[in-house]
Design brief:
Layout lengths: L12 E5 L14 E10 L13 E5 L2 E3 L1 E6 L5 E6 L3 H5 L3 H14 L5 E6 L5 E7 L2 H9 L11 H11 L8 E8 L10 H13 L3 E7 L6 H13 L3 E4 L5 H19 L2 E7 L8 E5 L4 E6 L7
Parallel strand pairs: 6-7, 6-9, 9-10, 10-11
Antiparallel strand pairs: 1-13, 2-12, 2-14, 3-4, 3-13, 5-12, 7-8
Helix pairs in contact: 2-3, 2-7
Length: 301
């Protein structure tokens, strides 16, 4: 990524991405694009009073219409999908799984909403989005190993996104605890998968996956790596089931700290040109400010 600053007609600061707009798979790009922009004054303090009219977005030099530009201060909305397939039982992972989810809910700041579903063999919704930690903890403590079949990773994500999240969510996330059992979702071809991933990206969805490896890898492993990479999420794979008890609260703490940092960024939604461009320029019509763009809400390693 290259940043450059220069004078223009509206006395704006302009930053340029090079090759930052690639989308996964051989699927047509979305009609609507987004970019996250952190704007500070000369002393490094966030500038929080900008409106959509203060931003200019160009793809390959073509100016795009700004749909919205808002700070990301709305709480996170986290769908916690838990693989309760038979591999959890054979790996003696149920107790550390429950402990990890409980500790995750403690580590995550209280204003953020969480929903819980299990995805072992089929998807079962246990708690819809809520900030009620007692209800969430009670549900997590009642998770048992289900019947046969592996995790339904892709169908679980797709159904949750389409049926549980609302339109124009401000900060949608998935936290998925999975095993590398056989993927038990229905058939989804490459184009269908590409469309799903592109839709998630276009709507600012981030997917974080903690994967317990009991077989040395599977199709689920491949999907987990691809999904987290494309959406800017974290991926951790481990062989010891006891790691669940510590990995999940560590993730909860990181999400809370990351929210404090990223909530100061504007999420700028804009209409992409036809054909869409490969290079993105972002302008801010305010003198004496410094702008830094991000293509997603990726946690910096």
């Amino acid at each position: 990524m290259m940043d450059s600053v220069f004078s223009c007609v509206r006395a704006c600061v302009v930053v340029v991405f090079v090759g930052a707009l690639a989308t996964p798979g051989a699927v047509a790009a979305q009609d609507v694009g987004q970019v996250f922009v952190h704007v500070t004054n000369q002393t490094g303090e966030p500038v929080t009073d900008l409106s959509p009219g203060d931003f200019t977005v160009l793809e390959d030099g073509v100016e795009c219409e700004i749909v919205s530009a808002e700070l990301g201060t709305a709480p996170m909305k986290i769908a916690l999908l838990i693989d309760n397939s038979e591999l959890i039982n054979s790996a003696n992972a149920l107790i550390p799984l429950r402990a990890g989810v409980d500790a995750f809910l403690t580590a995550l700041p209280a204003q953020h909403e969480v929903a819980i579903a299990t995805i072992g063999g089929n998807i079962r919704w246990r708690v819809n989005f809520t900030t009620d930690r007692d209800e969430l903890r009670e549900s997590a403590g009642e998770v048992f190993v289900g019947g046969g079949g592996g995790p339904i990773l892709l169908d679980g994500i797709k159904e949750t996104w389409e049926r549980r999240f609302e339109d124009e969510e401000s900060w949608p996330l998935f936290v998925i605890v999975a095993t590398d059992g056989a993927e038990s979702s229905g058939n989804m071809n490459q184009n269908e998968y590409g469309r799903l991933v592109n839709e998630l990206i276009a709507n600012g969805v981030t997917i974080h996956i903690m994967l317990l490896s009991t077989r040395g890898g599977s199709v689920v492993t491949d999907y987990a790596i691809n999904l987290t990479d494309n959406t800017g999420g974290l991926y951790e794979v481990f062989g010891a089931s006891t790691r669940l008890a510590t990995a999940l609260p560590e993730l909860g703490t990181r999400l809370g700290n990351h929210y404090d940092q990223v909530s100061q960024r504007y999420r700028v939604i804009y209409e992409r040109p036809d054909p869409p461009g490969a290079n993105l320029s972002v302008g801010v019509a305010r003198q004496g400010v410094v702008a830094r763009p991000y293509v997603d809400r990726r946690i910096e390693q």
